[in-house]
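Sequence in, structure out. Go.
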Amino acid sequence: MATGRILCRPSYSFPTSISPIDSTAIYGKSLYEAEESGNKFETVLIQAITGLPNIRWWHRNIARTGFAINGFINH
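Output:
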């Protein structure tokens, strides 16, 4: 039966550990011990946000796996 309402329920959870092939551990506030290495733009962004006092943690999704938002392709 259609109700005309949209319900949102949390359904995603982060894994307890990750195993990126190309990783780095040089940036602070990472959610994991090491994160997958990023491109130059991502590196600049990570450096900027890790210096902010209101950031508790960050995580770079491993490319083409797990959670993703399709932003610039087929938007």
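Check: The chain is about 15% helix and 5% strand. The mean pLDDT is 85.
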